[in-house]
């Protein structure tokens, strides 16, 4: 039961080249998963926190006047969740939570020094 990488489900050996390709594909998928996670974190951190908080405040003001309907309650809960996610993402990335100036995704990437190997390929191509 030792080696798994060079065998199929039924126990037969597979071609070493196929086993290598399968292993490389597995590594690539893992790397892509981490990259997507990082991109989502940056996108979340760059959302307009002030706008989200204003929307939430409006719903809270409405709640003082009357009961919120089902849609408004869901909206309030989703806004609260979104605000907490944005704050958490900014904290993870080391971005100040209460910033007046909103940074773009590219600026955040430059600030944090996050650089993908995909961008390395195209970096010198477009310089004239």
Automatic annotation (TrEMBL):
Residues 1-10 have a biased composition (Basic residues). Residues 11-87 form the Wbp11/ELF5/Saf1 N-terminal domain. Residues 1-36 are annotated as: Disordered. It comes from the Eukaryota. GO terms for biological process: RNA processing. InterPro entries: Wbp11/ELF5/Saf1_N. Pfam families: Wbp11. This is Wbp11/ELF5/Saf1 N-terminal domain-containing protein.
